[in-house]
Model the fold of this input.
Amino acid sequence: MILLLIACSNGEISVSPTTLDFGEVDFNAEPMDCDGEDGGCAPTTVTIRNEGEDTLTVTGTGWDPDYLCIEGFESETLDLGTLPAGAAFDLVIAVCGKDPGYGTLLSGDLRFTPSSGDPVTLPWSFTPVRDLGDDTGG
Done:
């Protein structure tokens, strides 16, 4: 049981879910362009929790705004501020871009670093698709 707690908390913070696999994201569905102004496609809530006994300052790095949008943030560094012991912060993360095109798996890592303790890595991935329906040309 103790090993499970250590594996889940990874030091002073935990992140849930532990991976963001958006799967296939249909860029033909509403909103058509999945841009950040429309909130992106497949929004998912990610919870960052302070598992320690001290207040922490938490930052996030490694996200690419060409592919992901995070509600309330525009720069590539996320300043999440302070988290008291036992408190949590929710981020809404969505798919916002698809370069180099359709059918190519896109992936990366978000890294959340507390002011003390170990950083936590959150891998993300998705495959952009465009379902045009049953286009028989008729």
About this structure: The first helix runs from residue 2 to 9. The two ends are 62 Å apart (CA to CA). Residues 33 and 130 are 11 Å apart (CA to CA).
